[in-house]
Amino acid sequence: MAPASLPAPFLFANSHSFSGELWGLQAGQDLIGALHDDGSHDRVGLFDAYTGTSGSNGGNTLGRLQFEVGSIDLHASSIGAYWTHIGEDGWYVDSIGMYSWLDGGLSSDRGIGADTSGNSVAFSVEAGYPFRFDNGWVLGPGPM
Question: pTM score, two decimals?
Answer without folding.
Answer: 0.72
